[in-house]
Amino acid sequence: MSTSSLIFASSLVLVAIFISYYQKLGIEKEIIIGTARAVLQLMIVGYILHYIFSASNAFFTLAMVAIMILVAGHNASKRGKEIPGIFYYVTFSIAVSAAVTLSLLVLFGNIKFEPQQVIPVSGMIIGNSMVASGLSVSRLKDEIKNRQEEIEAYLALGATSRQAAQKVIKMSIKTGMMPTVDSMKTLGIVQLPGMMTGLILGGVDPITAVKYQIMVTFMLASTVAISCFTVTFLTYRTFFTKQHQLRQAF
Amino acid sequence: MEIELKNISYFRDGKYILKNVYFKFEKNGIYTVVGPSGAGKSTMLKLINRLIEPTEGAIFINGVEYKNIDVILLRRKIGMVFQRPFLFEGTVKENIELGPSLRGEKNIDALFYLEAVGLSKDYLFKDVNNLSGGEAQRVSIARALANSPEVLLLDEPTSSLDPTSTSIIEELIKRLNREGIMVILVTHNMEQAKRIGDYTLFLYKGELIEARKTWEFFENPISEVSKLFLEGKLKEMIE
Fold first, then answer.
1. What residues have CB less than 8 Å from B95, skipping those under 6 apart?
2. Identity of the residue in A152, A158, A241 whose CB atom sits nearest the CB atom of B72
3. ipTM for the complex?
4. Contact state of A158 with B49 under an 8 Å Cβ cutoff
5. Ranked by mean pLDDT, which of A55-64, A137-146, B230-239 comes out on top?
6. Looking at the domain assignment, is residue B13 inside a domain?
7. What is the pLDDT of residues A94-120, one digit of tens each?
8. Which residue of chain A comes nearest to B146, CA vs CA?
9. Residue A158, min C-alpha distance to chain B (Å)
10. B83 falls within a domain
11. Fewer CB near the last or first residue (10 Å), C or N of chain A?
12. Inside any domain, residue B16
C-alpha cells in the first residue's frame, strides 16, 4: 500500500465525523483526537518494531513483551481499583498466561522465537488476557458485594474463605472466559478474525491463514483460562481476613 | 458454654455500632436481644460468631479468649441462623449435610436433623426452591444443628414468617433449648421476646442499657430509655 493511498483512506474518518455532526452526537472532537492518537501511536510502534526486528535481539523482544504486559496490567486493574494490590495480581496473571502460552507455542514449533513472530502473537495473547482478567475482577468484586450475606451464611456454617467464595470464583472465571469461548463458536462464520484477515490481505494463501488462525484460537483459549483462573484466585483472598471473615471495607 | 463479652466495641463508618458492652451468657437459657433498628443487635451476633472482629474489648468462650480458638471450630460450636434462610441450590438433604461436608465428613444423618426441626422425611429430597418461608427457615436451623452446636445465634429468624410458621419456630427454639442448646435470639417482636425469652438484653445506640430476666424487664424496666422503648415512645425521644 502506498502512502498516498493511505492518505486517501483517511478520508473515511470524515464519514464518521460527518455522521457525528449530522446526528449531533457531539463526538467530532473525540474522533479527531482518537484518529490522531491512533496514527501517532501506530507510527511510533511501527518504528520501534522496525528497530527491534532489524536488531533481532532477544532482550529487546522480551523488553517489548514486558512493556505490553505492564500496560495491559495497568489498564485491566482499573476494573478493580478499590482492591489493594490489584495491579500486581492482574499483571502477574497476564504475565503467567503469556509466559505459559508463548513457551508452549515455541516448544511445539508453532512460532519461532524471533521478534517478527513473538511480538505480534504476544500482542494478541496479552490483549485478550487483559480484557478477560479485567472482566473476571469486575465480576468477582460485584458478586462478593451483592452476595455478602450469602457468603457470611456459608462462613457461619464453618466454611473457609475459599469454600464460601467458591460460587463467585466460578462465576468470575466463567465471565472472563465466555467472550472468547463465544467468539470461538462463530469464528469464520460471523467474523473473519484480525490475524487471518491480515494474512490474506498480505497475500498469504487462505488455507495457511486459516492454520494460523486455528493456532491463535487454541492459544487464546489457553491464555484467557490461565489469566482468569490466576487473577481470580489471587484476588478473592483480598476480600477475606485470615480469620475467614469477609472484609467490611469494600 | 459460657460466652463473656468483655467491654466490646465495634466502630465502623465513623461511629460506634456497639459501645463498651459487657455481658456474660453463662446459664443455659433463651436470651432475647431487643432494641430499636440500628441498636447493634445483629452486630453483637456477628461478633460472637466472629464474622467480624471487635474494635475494642475481647470475647471469652469458657474463659478462653476466642482469638485463641480455631475460628472454624468456634463457628461450628456457635451456630448462626440469619433472617433470610440462604439455602443453597440443591435438595434439603444437601443443605443439611453442608456444614459437616465442608470438613469432609460423610454419612451424615440428615433425616435426624430434619426431624429435629419437625419436618418429615418427605422433605429430604425436596428441591429447596419448593419450600415455603417457614419450611426454609426450619431447614436452615436443621443445617446449623448438623454442626452439633452448643449455642445457636438466631438473627430475627421469624421476621418474614406468618404467625403459624412463627409459632412452629418458637416451639422449636424452646425444645432445642430444653435439649441443652443455649439460644441468643435477636428479635423486633416484643411479644415473641416475652413469650420465649428467659433473659432479655436491651440495646440502644450500641449500648447495653439493661440485661435482666425477661419478665422483670417487661414488667418493671429500670431505665427511662427501656420504659420509653416498651411504651413505643422511644422514637419521639430520638427526634
1. B87, B88, B128, B139, B140, B143
2. A158
3. 0.89
4. no
5. A137-146
6. no
7. 999 999 999 999 999 888 998 888 998
8. A157
9. 5
10. yes
11. N
12. no
